[in-house]
Write a structure and sequence with these properties.
By secondary structure, the protein is mainly β. The chain has two domains: about 120 residues, no CATH class; about 200 residues, no CATH class. The strands form five sheets. Strands 8, 9, 10, 11, 12, 15, 16, 19 and 22 form a nine-stranded antiparallel β-sheet that branches.
Amino acid sequence: MKLEEILVFVSLILNVETQREQYFASSDSALLDYKDLKISTVLYNVRNKIRCGIICSQISTSSQTNKIMYNVDHPNITQSQCAVFNGNCYFVKKVTSCIKRRSNNSACSCMSPYYGSYCHLVLSSCEDVKHSMESLVNGIYSVATISGEIIEIFCDFQKTQIITFISKQSLSYLTTPDLMQFGSNRTRVVLRQNWINYQKDSILSQLTTHSSIPLSIYINGIGNFKEPANTVFGDFIFLGFLDLSNIYQDSVNGYATDSVDNDFANCKEFGHSYFNFYPNLENKEPTYTTNASNKVDIFAWTQTGVTIAANQELTLDYFYVTEIHFGGCGGLTTSSYWRTINGTALGLITDF
């Protein structure tokens, strides 16, 4: 259907201007620029993007309904809402009415919890995306961190949980406090593996005997754990199991994968107990190249888990160089030397 035919069809059905919608066919330009938009706009071509224009830009004595749809390149998203934030377009939960009080753009009166010149609320997590979309689509979304940085994450929406993956390029903009907005569950995490022809998920958790101890997750930090071996790689996400207060001579150390314990007796008065994830964007070589399991099977997670569907698969930008270290006398490995798995991705879980 041509654009002219669509507009005629719309004008016949929707003749009230404040509720009128404009439809754009797939043949239209890839970028549409709207300024002073006072009517709702719906974009049905998933390859087009609307550049958000100035909203609430004219003095008005009554409410203006500000609804602009912003569509990213996800094949199954047909419409979603957006607003302006620092001059750019990002996903938002909802766009509310804005009453212009003065000529200054900062004078809009917004309904709580919306704020700013454009009555916007920028998404900050996959959970926000879930609440803002009528139809959920697994994929990459732009969200705001606590400090206001815009980063990319991958949202995997499942029946009872959301799994969030952080892109390697985004990690340098994050700190440990940011992690809670991407997943609050600290009893288990997802380890997504990039095998040669497919991807697979395993669930990592504490040993049954230590199930009351939450997992520790840090960005460029280690808490009360021993330092990782290959910090030459730079930034990292640290997943700790048992810290130094829980490891001593002959204590039980290890981890569980898909509810199966992989434990051993620690042979020293201290030890390591972690998985570590490095973006290694500069492709540096590891300092330690040991690739061995001693008392614990540090590759047990490769034997469990399930193959994921195509719409859950991550791009290479989400798979990190992975270091696993347990012991004394457990094992140490770095994915730089793995043959069948090209890195792993740490998935943070939000239950609902």
